UniProtKB/TrEMBL annotation:
Keyword Methyltransferase: no
Organism, scientific name: Pseudomonas prosekii
Entry-linked Gene3D superfamilies: 3.40.190.290, Winged helix-like DNA-binding domain superfamily/Winged helix DNA-binding domain
One GO term (biological process): regulation of DNA-templated transcription initiation
UniProt keywords, alphabetically: Activator, DNA-binding, Transcription, Transcription regulation
Name of the protein this chain belongs to: LysR family transcriptional regulator
PANTHER family to which the protein is assigned, alphabetical: NITROGEN ASSIMILATION REGULATORY PROTEIN NAC, TRANSCRIPTIONAL REGULATORY PROTEIN NAC-RELATED
CDD domains found in the cross-reference section: PBP2_LTTR_substrate (cd05466)
Xref: InterPro entries: LysR_HTH_N (IPR000847), LysR_subst-bd (IPR005119), WH-like_DNA-bd_sf (IPR036388), WH_DNA-bd_sf (IPR036390)
Listed GO MF terms: DNA binding; DNA-binding transcription factor activity
Family to which this protein belongs: Belongs to the LysR transcriptional regulatory family.
Residue intervals of the HTH lysR-type domain: 1-58
Amino acid sequence: MDIKQLKFLIALDETRHFGQAAARCHITQPTLSMRLRSLEEELELPLVNRGQRFEGFTAPGERVLAWARTVLAAYDGLQAEAAACRGNLVGTLRLGVVPLSSFDPLPLMQRLHKEHPNLRFELSALSSEQILEQLANNRLDLGVSYLERLDGERFDSLAFSTTRMGLLYDQRFYSFGEAPLSWEALIELPLGMLTSGMHFRQSIDHNFHSRGLTPQPLLQTDAVHQLLQAVHGGFCCAVMPLEGGLENLTDHLRLQPIDNAQTLGRLGLIMRRAAPRSALAEACFAIYQKSPSES
């Protein structure tokens, strides 16, 4: 057994396709299949359900896959730890962020890249539940998520300031002056919103309902980029995080503050507490603790 075999197994899980997994690993499909069969023979377990195409993992395969991720995370962590001891950070920082977070990861990534040019970044938009799950099994190094109901025995966290909300609109189609907007004024506008059940949408609904208002959104979507496209096209306006930097995406977008508008829960930077813990995550925590306004 070697590290490459475990990488092949994880690539197969992430692509769910033999050919795509082989291409990702820069090997041929027959080589991938041969190496995985060799792993099965060594463990004396069937790991993959094979037909004319990939049909998923066996029950033992799922358990081995979880161990493979842990072993690979420990291997990557060892490499990163050794580099950190030499004064460098190498590898890939895997960061998961909830949709419409007020945290802009770009300044942090820019600072890390400037100080450690060999560092790479993998940024994923995930739900709060997915972030905690992937932190727990070492598929993420850091998460940006809501801190309510966070298990403090399993995760360390750094709380951000309260997330305030504003109205994002394209000034070619709308104009609202300079004063903060009221929730009563928003109810008359064509609004685009994330679908019900998403955390940021719950905060929007709470602000409306607590004032006896019932919004009738023109557009609902679970894709943030589609919502931004609709706003940029003048189709609708959208309630967004005030400090998220979305108004800087184009010259035409503006973010107007809303009176008494904040999310229900606090966001924060989250890192798993148990070993093996990512040296990259610890470096990010240290940077943010030192100067959160710059990160």
